[in-house]
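tokens incoming
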């Protein structure tokens, strides 16, 4: 029977020895993947500690879930479906990832162990570049000296000739037609055509250029990590042959300074998969690797689906009446008392 310590060992092997083994790894500075993340919001800094976050090394693991971001919904689903351990891609923090309460109490309620990886997993495989139609010949997971500011520079695959080929490839790999069908089904079931869903709303899009524009060398960026127009200018100088900027995981708007700079440099700009798809890009390969190293453990994928609904159509008539009542009787009177 596999134990928590076996899961930790498997994750350490998968990441090439990047996981935290002991408390000294966290504070000694020896593990470069123990990273402090802060944008100087008071009290909100986070230290990434790849490996076991909370759990008993000797506890048995029969069923394990891989998720992108640990939430209270993950914890509840794990508790209801017999999951013993959750491996989260993103870093895990007290309360923020456990429904606002202390994590250990919540996890112990269901006998759960939790792991995180994040920066320790980045750069391990070429899959995200491959899905987006290129083979990276340069990978930098801290461009400009910024941890997590990932940069790929790659040559397009033989079958990818144009921007349109990239969009069609993403549609095939990520099953966007299925996502559209699911959204239509939900709209019909709930009698609300205004429901929106992340995967559908954030599909691939060309911001500079057109479907027929040729693509040869791609600068693949992740805007939410701190990549700036100045970075783009520098990369273009380093790789003058680059003709296309591809942004994935996060997006930019058409009036973004990054798009403007790409146009100034004579480059295409295309949006790829959003963060909502990373559970398939990074999470599924990780889950498969864990299953192969721990064949006696059942491995499942926790994939969240986020929707947007007008409050006048949210839930049942009964719950909407409840919401009106609570707001009128309790919340708004409080607001009236505050000057």
């Amino acid at each position: 029977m596999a134990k928590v310590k076996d899961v930790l060992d498997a994750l350490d092997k998968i990441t090439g020895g990047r996981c935290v083994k002991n408390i000294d790894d966290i504070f000694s500075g020896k593990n470069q993947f123990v990273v402090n993340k802060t944008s100087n919001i008071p009290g909100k800094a986070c230290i990434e500690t790849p490996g076991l976050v909370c759990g008993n090394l000797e506890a048995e693991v029969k069923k394990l879930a891989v998720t992108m971001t640990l939430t209270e919904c993950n914890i509840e689903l794990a508790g209801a479906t017999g999951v013993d351990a959750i491996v989260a891609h993103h870093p895990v923090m007290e309360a923020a990832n456990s429904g606002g309460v202390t994590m250990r109490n919540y996890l112990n309620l269901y006998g759960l162990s939790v792991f995180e990886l994040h920066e320790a997993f980045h750069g391990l495989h070429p899959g995200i570049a491959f899905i987006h139609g290129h083979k990276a010949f340069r990978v930098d997971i801290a461009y400009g000296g910024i941890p997590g500011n990932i940069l790929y520079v790659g040559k397009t695959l033989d079958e990818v000739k144009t921007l349109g080929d990239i969009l069609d490839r993403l549609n095939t790999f990520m099953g966007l037609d299925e996502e559209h069908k699911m959204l239509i089904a939900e709209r019909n079931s709930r009698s609300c055509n205004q429901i929106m869903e992340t995967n559908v709303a954030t599909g691939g899009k060309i911001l500079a250029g057109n479907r027929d524009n040729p693509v040869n060398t791609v600068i693949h960026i992740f805007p939410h990590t701190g990549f700036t127009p100045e970075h783009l200018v520098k990369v273009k100088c380093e790789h003058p042959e680059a003709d296309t900027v591809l942004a994935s995981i996060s997006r930019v708007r058409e009036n973004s300074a990054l798009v403007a700079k790409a146009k100034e440099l004579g480059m295409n700009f295309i949006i790829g998969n959003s963060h909502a798809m990373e559970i398939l890009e990074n999470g599924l390969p990780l889950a498969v690797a864990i299953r192969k190293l721990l064949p006696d453990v059942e491995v499942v994928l926790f994939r969240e689906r986020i929707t947007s609904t007008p409050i006048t159509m949210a839930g049942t008539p009964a719950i909407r009446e409840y919401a009106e009542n609570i707001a009128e009787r309790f919340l708004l009177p409080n607001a009236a008392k505050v000057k």
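note: The chain has two domains: 4-121, 127-275.
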